[in-house]
Structures are given as structure tokens and as C-alpha cells.
Amino acid sequence: NAGVTQTPKFQVLKTGQSMTLQCAQDMNHNSMYWYRQDPGMGLRLIYYSASEGTTDKGEVPNGYNVSRLNKREFSLRLESAAPSQTSVYFCASSRDREYEQYFGPGTRLTVT
Amino acid sequence: EDQVTQSPEALRLQEGESSSLNCSYTVSGLRGLFWYRQDPGKGPEFLFTLYSAGEEKEKERLKATLTKKESFLHITAPKPEDSATYLCAVQAYQGGKLIFGQGTELSVKP
Prior knowledge:
heterodimer, A: mainly beta, globular, B: mainly beta, six-stranded mixed beta sheet
């Protein structure tokens, strides 16, 4: 039972490049989330998926897109990376939206 | 606007020296308050959920309490392995998103 897994662990991009962050959970959870964590800003919600087939914007969605591929997988795409997107990205999942969230190990992204 | 403020930002304790971390919140209709622990370079780890004023939860040396305006995380006789950043988050009935505080960085020296 791995919980929430994320790939890659580290990534360096040049401005304008694109990439997709992958997330998978094996807890049969309905809801999944993408956050970014920056010094002094705390954890901020980018996008979430309350259930399979639905996605909604969070607090800081600009520059990102998401896909809920199936119940297990939720990916985050950066179409044209910018230095302001340098951050640590966390994926999380929960049984449903009102329950506690379980986080993955994070992806450290640097955009130069 | 829903808001969470944690204090202090950083706390240094000697092993065995008990203390408390504070989480003050304003939210329009609290569904739940969550405590997480985060070690450097790792994702947040779920500790507790509190739902109503007066509720208490315990786990080893940690005890979380809730009032209508704030929550406390009491650490009794801490050990060096308790060193981490502790995050507090609130969830409102309306919207349902988690709003996180900035965290308290706890350091316990032997």
C-alpha cells in the first residue's frame, strides 16, 4: 500500500518548456488535489478533482492544467513554464472532500 | 475571508520541555480543523481532525484541542524526533477547500 506517489521527484526546466507531473493513489479515494508550497506562502491549492470526471480551479490555477485520468491518477501540466512556477508541488487525496487529505512526497521543480 | 494564523513561527525546546503551538482561525462555518506534521523534504503527514469546540484528540506526546476561535497542539515531554514543521488547516462547510496556516517550525534539542 504505497499511498500517494508522485513522479518525478526533481525537475529542472527552461522558461517556455512544458511538462506533466504525475500523481497516483492506491487508497480508492474519490477526491484528489494539487498544491504548491512556497516559502512564506504556505500550501496553496492549484486544482482539485472532487470525484472522477470532475475538476475545479483552486486558489492559484493560472498557468496550469489538470487531467483526472481515472479514479487513481491525477496529472498536472505546465504548458509553458515560467520562473514564478519554481516551487515544490504536492499531490493529495481524500476519501471525499470532507475527509482528511493524504499527501505525496512532492516534486521539486526549478524553472530557469 | 477564511484565514488561519499559526504562532509562534519557530519554537526551540529542550528535550522534555513541554509547550503548546497555537492555530487561530476565522472561517464562515467550520466543518473541520486539521493538524499535519511535515518533515524537511517530505509531504505533510496527517495527525488529527477536530470538528467541534471542546473536542480533544491525543497521539503519543501530542494532544490537540479546539475552541471556537483557535486550536492548540500541546507537546508533552518532547523528544528530538518530534522536530518538524506543524501545519494547521481549516475547512469550511461552504466550498470545502483546506486553508493552511504558515506552520510552526519546532526544534527539540537533546
